[in-house]
Specification:
The protein is 27% helix and 29% strand. By secondary structure, it is an alpha/beta fold. The strands form 4 sheets. Strands 2-1-3-4-14-13 form a 6-stranded mixed β-sheet. A 4-stranded mixed β-sheet has the order 6-5-7-10. Strand 8 (135-143) and strand 9 form a beta hairpin.
């Protein structure tokens, strides 16, 4: 029997890590290892090359504008071409908040500075200015017949271009831009989102979806044995309650 292994590239962990984004890596590791799936996470800093075919999954977290400025040029000039090749080749990528913004064409800050994106996603993000309302709070999103929960804190408004669809539809919170009802973006196996918190520990279905998608590229369809997610389900339900002021039972099931 083939020994399964998930190889992950964690981009800029010292720069792009806010609101517990590193917890997503810990969640993926635990959910793999409890199923006897080997897990390898390599941290790639500015200046480190990314090989397009070396990984099954890539993760980039969020950060404030200062840190985004520090990595934007490296993301475009050092890792950008390989990142685009990887995504077009079916590699799974999860990008959160600032990392999500930098996957697009550009991010225009509140001061009008335009940070170039990696151009992996046909999206663009514009901050309306220093006096504009920030989108802050708990979020609930409809996703594949269930719900995703998380915490958002962003001033930029993200807009999706052709060929990109929202990750989910907003039930509570603001989402991409507070107007069109979409949250996040999906292109091939790239998933972008504004959801912090960490995202994956409170959304085990989504974590398993990422794991299965990443492994399928190398090994084909890999059934994932269920885990005991009672704690995760409780955390998810409490997050929904906080965001919507009404409870649910389990993940995605309403009272």
């Amino acid at each position: 029997m083939t020994k399964l292994k998930l190889r992950l590239a964690h981009l800029y962990p010292k720069h792009m890590n806010i609101y517990g984004d590193r917890g997503n890596i810990l969640c993926l590791r635990r959910r793999c290892e409890e199923r006897a799936i080997a897990f390898q996470a390599d941290e790639l800093a500015p200046g480190d090359a990314l090989a397009a075919d070396a990984y099954d999954m890539v993760f980039i977290g969020g950060a404030q504008d200062r840190e985004q400025r520090r990595v934007a040029e490296d993301l475009l000039k050092v890792k950008g071409a390989a990142l685009r090749e990887a995504v077009e080749g079916g590699v799974t990528l999860l990008a959160v908040c600032g990392g999500y913004q930098l996957m697009g064409r550009f991010y225009r800050t509140a001061e009008g500075e335009e940070l170039p994106g990696a151009g992996v996603l046909d999206i663009w993000t514009v901050h309306p200015g220093p006096r504009a309302r920030r989108f802050i709070g708990n979020v609930v999103v409809k996703w594949r017949g269930a719900t995703l929960v998380g915490f958002e804190n962003h001033g930029g408004r993200t807009h999706l271009g052709a060929g990109v669809r929202p990750l989910g539809r907003v039930v509570a919170g603001f989402g991409n831009n507070g107007r069109d009802g979409g949250e996040g973006a999906v292109y091939k196996n790239l998933f972008g989102t504004y959801l912090h918190g960490s995202l994956l520990p409170k959304n085990p279905q989504f974590a398993d979806h990422l794991i299965a998608t990443a492994l399928a590229r190398r090994y084909g369809d890999v059934p994932l044995p269920p885990l005991d997610d009672r704690i995760e389900s409780t955390a998810h339900a409490e997050a929904v309650r906080l965001a919507t002021r009404r409870g649910i039972i389990g993940i995605g099931g309403r009272k």
